[in-house]
Specification:
Number of domains of chain B: 1
Radius of gyration of chain B: 19 Å
Strand content of chain B: 5-15%
CATH topology of chain B: Rossmann fold
Order of helices and strands of chain B: HHEHHHEHEEEHEHEHHH
Number of helices of chain B: 11
Number of strands of chain B: 7
CATH class of chain B: Alpha Beta
CATH architecture of the largest domain in chain A: 3-Layer(aba) Sandwich
CATH class of the largest domain in chain A: Alpha Beta
Structural class of chain A: alpha/beta
Radius of gyration of chain A: 19 Å
Oligomer: heterodimer
Strand order of the largest sheet of chain B: 1-2-3-7-6
Bound molecules: thiamine diphosphate
Structural class of chain B: alpha/beta
Low-confidence stretches of chain B: none
Mean pLDDT of chain A: 98
Mean pLDDT of chain B: 96
CATH architecture of chain B: 3-Layer(aba) Sandwich
Helix content of chain A: 25-40%
Shape of chain B: globular
Order of helices and strands of chain A: EHEHEHEHHEHEHEEEEHEEHEHEHH
């Protein structure tokens, strides 16, 4: 099997799905000739032509809306928002239109499309290229939200998203685009189900539920705790809506403690929903309060390295948070 | 070539030329620092400088309002930002007057100078300028709001909403589009339907003017006439300045990957700065020796600015949470 980094895995998923089904098409800013600002669509326009890989005007609302129009006519569009921060001009189309079309037509219409967007920080992208807006979309019934953190998960889940009958917001942690490489399978065998978490590291003393770039940070934090004899079980959710509550509950029944680690700012983040649900489900098994380890409540991640560092969670900060839960 | 000598003195034009040279010299220095690994991210005004400075020279910094966009490095100098201040933001230092190192360089702001703080998002300043224009109209002091953007921004719904509102309410606004024919990799034919941006004005019943952005006097005249209309209550004007993007979109982009090499070479040969110098020499306003002297002075100024900014302090990590609300 070939070794791929995350952005190559995204590109491979798009390539394979376009080969498999000629209804699959791509649209977005700079996705064609340039192959995307992160190269996620590199070479696809050369292979599949200008119709199926369409460079759009600089207008996210119409990118989402045109994708919906294509979906309503039987195509399977994959729209790219250049940065998750710039999905907000499309918010009305996504939340009021795309998410609600099935419900409001009493099931007569569906909207099978994928909106891909690079998310998260730690790349000196500053306020407008670092945000983690998953909670906004997770709040919306009718949308599915996926946020993978490994090349194989990205590929498998993107293929699943393209095959899904409903709209999927597919968030890609840009910090991980060129981080790790791993062997990634292809074809139907590579498809992964949306809504299923994975246990990244087994442990007995404490459960850490996480996703995205925080998976890697939490793994590093866990090895520090391991040196002190505390074994953290890490669950990478991979999908946020729906999310795999049962896997988390099973783990907490074993460990009796849980912390949710997420990159977005703390208040109202998706980790707050996870914490609430797990507190409700696991009350009888918990030996400590459900805890959140998240970024500070400032509007976004600053450009200056000193401030970016102050904002971002790192293994030290996460290890501190996990220790507090372990010692409660 | 339209002349505008009646309202411009030799000193004013030479002053503008010095600002243009400052912008270019600072920009060149930024690229040296970028290659040395000292500056993370640059958006260059190369090719836009003459148009930007000509436009601002026709206005009244201190009295008028300016909603600039990220490519307005030369316009910011013309609005009164000093070379040292722009270098402070390039280095993301605490003393960066626009954002204290929080934003990527290029998001200019200074209440004192009437420069309204911008963001990296393409387009939102356009309807905001309509609101500022409405307020200025209500105040009745004859001030106006100047707002600039690329042709890519005209695809956003915000462009329509801003022009429509400003036209309905005859707001004193100058909409200044710097059309370099490329929005990252997307060329004008895939961005702007119809002949161009200036023609859009007709739909709102306001004047639309197209000018050669390398012609200092033509740009100055267009902006001066728009300002006269705005100040007497005749409402907004849309100006489209045709400019060249002589650099890649940003330091994260390489335009050789999607633009024709011959076209790039042809554009490089049409650099507006030598053209402005030749025009000044033809008029007898500048000699070759004056020019060399001026450039040497600007070099020294940029050298001092760079040294001071490089030596300046980074933001304190503890300041991360300041200014989220008024009370902290
Ligand atoms: C709403 C939004 N979408 C996408 C981007 C990413 N982006 C930054 S600049 C740019 C191209 C802008 O082109 P144009 O408006 O023509 O101005 P230019 O950069 O050429 O001066 C894009 C797509 C953004 N900043 N904001």
């Amino acid at each position: 099997m070939p070794e791929r980094n995350l952005v190559q895995a995204v590109r491979d998923a798009l390539y394979e799905e376009m080969e498999r089904d000629d209804r699959v098409c791509i649209l977005g800013e700079d996705v064609g000739r340039k192959g995307g600002v992160f190269k996620a669509t590199e070479g696809l326009q050369q292979r599949f032509g200008e119709q199926r890989v369409l460079d759009t005007p600089l207008a996210e609302s119409s990118i989402a809306a045109v994708a919906q129009g294509l979906a309503l006519e039987g195509f399977l569009p994959v729209a790219e928002m250049q940065f998750a921060d710039y999905s907000f001009p499309a918010f009305n189309q996504i939340v009021n239109e795309i998410a609600k079309v099935r419900y409001r037509s009493n099931g007569d219409f569906g909207c099978p499309l994928v909106i891909r967007a690079p998310t998260g920080g730690g790349v000196r992208g500053a306020l407008y290229h670092s945000q983690s807006p998953e909670a906004f979309y997770c709040h919306v019934p009718g949308l599915k939200v996926v946020l993978p953190s490994t090349p194989a998960d990205a590929k498998g889940l993107l293929k699943a998203a393209i095959r899904d009958p409903d709209p999927v917001i597919f968030l890609e942690p840009k910090k991980l685009y060129r981080a790790e490489r791993q062997e990634v399978g292809d074809g139907d065998a590579a498809v992964l189900p949306i809504g299923v978490a994975t246990v990244v590291r087994p442990g007995t003393d404490l459960t850490a539920v996480t996703y995205g770039f925080m998976r890697a940070v939490t793994i590093q934090a866990a090895s520090r705790l391991s040196a002190d004899g505390i074994e953290v079980e890490i669950i990478d959710l991979r999908s946020l809506r729906p999310w795999d509550v049962e896997s988390c509950v099973r783990s907490i029944e074993k460990t009796g403690r849980v912390a949710v680690v997420y990159e977005a700012n703390r208040t109202g983040g998706f980790g707050a929903e996870i914490a609430a649900e797990l507190a409700e489900r696991c009350f009888a098994s918990l030996d400590a309060p459900v805890s959140r380890i998240a970024s500070p409540d400032v509007p976004a991640m600053p450009f200056s390295p000193s401030l970016e560092h102050a904002f971002m969670l790192n293994p030290d900060k996460v290890a501190d948070g996990l220790r507090r839960v372990a010692r409660y | 070539m339209p002349t505008d000598d009646r309202t411009l003195t030799r000193e004013q034009v030479l002053d503008a030329y010095r600002t243009v040279l400052r912008a270019r010299t600072l920009d060149d220095r930024r690229f040296v620092l970028n290659r040395a690994g000292k500056l993370a991210f640059i958006i260059s005004p190369r090719g836009h400088e003459v148009a930007q400075v000509a436009a601002i020279t026709a206005l009244q910094p201190g009295r008028d309002r300016f909603c600039l966009y990220y490519r307005n490095f030369a316009a910011a100098l013309a609005c009164g930002f000093t070379p040292e201040e722009l270098m402070l933001s390039a280095f993301a230092r605490a003393a960066d007057p626009s954002s204290g190192g929080r934003q990527t360089p290029g998001n200019f702001g200074s209440r004192r100078r009437g420069v309204i703080i911008g963001s990296s998002t393409v387009g939102p300043q356009i309807p905001k300028a309509a609101g500022i224009g409405l307020a200025l109209k209500w105040k009745g002091e004859g001030a106006l709001c100047y707002v600039s953007f690329g042709e890519g921004a005209t695809s956003q719904g915000d462009f329509h909403e801003g022009l429509n509102f400003a036209a309905i309410h005859r707001c004193p606004v100058i909409f200044f589009c710097e059309n370099n024919r490329w929005a990252i990799s997307v060329p004008q034919p895939l961005q702007v339907a119809g002949p161009g941006v200036a023609e859009r004005a007709a739909g709102y019943g306001i004047p639309g003017v197209r000018v050669h952005g390398d012609d200092f006097f033509a740009v100055h005249l267009a902006v001066r006439q728009a300002a006269e209309r705005a100040r007497i209550g005749d409402g907004p004007t849309l100006i489209e300045a045709e400019v060249l993007r002589l650099q890649s979109h940003s330091t994260d982009d390489d335009q050789r990957a999607y633009r024709d090499a011959a076209e790039l070479a042809a554009e490089a040969a049409r650099d507006p700065i030598p053209r402005m110098r030749d025009m000044l020499i033809q008029r007898g306003w500048l000699t070759a020796e004056d020019d060399a002297g001026l450039r040497a002075e600007v070099d020294r100024e940029v050298e001092r600015a760079t040294e001071a900014a490089e030596a300046a302090a980074d933001p304190e990590p503890g300041s991360l949470g300041r200014h989220v609300y008024a009370d902290a």
